[in-house]
Design goal:
Largest sheet: 10 strands, mixed
Distance between the termini: 63 Å
Order of helices and strands: HEHEHHHEEEEHEHHEHEEHHEEEEH
Structural class: alpha/beta
Strand order of the largest sheet: 6-5-4-3-7-1-8-9-2-10
CATH class of the largest domain: Alpha Beta
Shape: globular
CATH topology of the largest domain: Alkaline Phosphatase, subunit A
Number of domains: 2
Radius of gyration: 23 Å
């Protein structure tokens, strides 16, 4: 028989053990994460870069106090595939989300059911997960954000915004009409309210703005400021839209400060692709191409990571890609992920500490409307070399394969992609052509599986 003199210390030690374990878990503070994505905003739209053409003090502050990635790339030159890659860490073709029209191509503009998103990973680790703004990764019950890892959703699919002053929003799974607000301000306020609701628990918020995507629209007083500077009407509206979005980001940052959680909140800011050519031409660092194109102007995007006291400020020259963000967040936030899902990117967490990261040396892109056609608008970057299968059309679907000759650029000497150097570098040209063709076959095979 065990005496009471032995039993009491044993029970005491057992209670002490569990108390210590629980206390250690509580002391390990999980960082909040806010992933902000603009829509059709080029690098040249940030006033830090464009010599004051726009007014983006909040984005500038994020960049100046965090890390600006000077060689950052989206995964696609259009929205839906880029977003699918961002959320899953996979090339768009492997997600099944390869084009942008959810109405015309519903099956080609949604992520495969079996895929997990970064929101799934955060939810598994006790985070509250929310999406405020644009979804654009699938319509239908099985493809709703609430089925893709997000516990809260206040936004829209991506095609049901006839005006920034007259639109519909889905709150969870209920549709509401809004006629007395400006969309960008509305999205910003909903993001702020999400943060207020969950200030006492770890959260992952994906704030997906629509600005400055068409249909263009902004309050008259905001537009007039840019008209008075001599900009054409469309550019003036776009710059006003960006300024209003930036103001909302600033208010969100102020809210984090007031709630006392700014230092425990990691913020990432990016855009899904380059400027829309249908709205006219505006400053974009003389980069060739626009939205719809795999040239630099279509896929190089602003990317900022900011975390006070944890991320060293400065500029990073290494090439990073949307598929790197999933594994980076998993590492930074120390997430335990139960599902087996290979990512095409790698973590760049080391770069945030001023150290190195083992990032892929080779990246690929392709986009065509509808079913992928790998004969055009495809590209591969390896080091400072980039091979491009030239753009044909963003609107029509060509009846025949493109016979246009691939072009080779040296981005170190020619970041604007003005000079074809294929004849002077035949071995590199041949190597990249073969690698791009092989990648095209691989991702198309994966796209057609399941």
């Amino acid at each position: 028989m065990i005496s009471m003199g032995i039993r009491v210390p044993f029970l005491f030690l057992l209670v002490l053990f569990f108390h210590t374990a629980i206390q250690a878990q509580q002391d390990k503070t999980s960082p909040n994460v806010i992933l902000i994505l603009a829509d059709d905003m080029g690098i040249g739209d940030v006033s830090l870069i464009n010599e004051g053409r726009t007014h983006t003090p909040a984005i500038n502050k994020l960049a100046n106090e965090g890390i600006w990635f000077d060689q950052a790339y989206s995964a696609a030159p259009v929205c839906a595939p880029a977003r699918a890659a961002l959320l899953t860490g996979q090339y768009p073709h492997r997600t099944g989300c390869v084009t942008l029209s959810m109405q015309r191509f519903p099956k080609l503009s949604r992520m495969k059911k079996g895929l997990h998103t970064i929101a799934d990973a955060f939810a598994e680790n006790g985070y509250v997960t929310g999406l405020v703004g644009k979804w654009h990764c699938g319509i239908g019950e099985d493809y709703h954000p609430l089925r893709r890892g997000f516990q809260e959703f206040e936004g829209f699919h991506g095609f049901n915004v006839p005006s920034y002053f007259d639109y519909e929003l889905m709150v969870q799974d209920s549709l509401i009409e809004v006629k007395d607000n400006y969309l960008t301000d509305d999205i910003s306020e909903r993001a702020i309210r999400f943060v207020r609701r969950h200030r006492n628990e770890p959260f992952f918020l994906h704030l997906a703005h629509y600005a400055p995507h068409r249909p263009l629209g902004a309050p008259e007083e905001a537009v007039n400021k840019y008209l008075e500077k001599g900009y054409d009407k469309n550019t003036a509206i776009i710059y006003a839209m960006i300024e209003i979005m930036d103001d909302g980001i600033g208010r969100l940052m102020e809210e984090l400060e007031e709630l006392g959680i700014r230092e425990n909140t990691l913020i990432i800011f990016a855009s899904d692709n380059g400027p829309d050519p249908l709205t006219g031409e505006r400053f974009n660092m003389k980069l060739k191409g626009t939205k719809y194109m795999v040239n630099e102007g279509g896929i190089r995007v602003p990317l900022i990571v900011n975390w006070p006291g944890k991320v060293k400020s400065g500029k990073v020259e290494e090439v990073v890609h949307f598929t790197d963000i999933f594994p980076t967040l998993v590492e930074i936030c120390d997430l335990n992920v139960s599902f087996q899902q290979k990512t095409n990117g790698e973590s760049f967490a080391g770069l945030l500490d001023g150290e190195s990261s083992q990032l892929p040396d080779t990246r690929m892109w392709q986009w065509t409307r509808g079913v992928p056609d790998y004969s055009y608008n495809a590209a591969i970057r390896q080091g400072h070399w980039k091979l491009v299968r030239p753009f044909v059309s963003h609107w029509e679907i060509p009846l025949e394969k493109s016979e246009l000759k691939p072009v080779l650029y040296n981005l170190k000497n020619d970041p604007a992609e003005q000079r074809d150097v294929s004849e002077n570098n035949p071995e590199i040209y041949k190597e990249l052509r073969v690698k791009l063709e092989q990648w095209c076959r691989e991702v198309e095979f994966d796209r057609l599986k399941n």
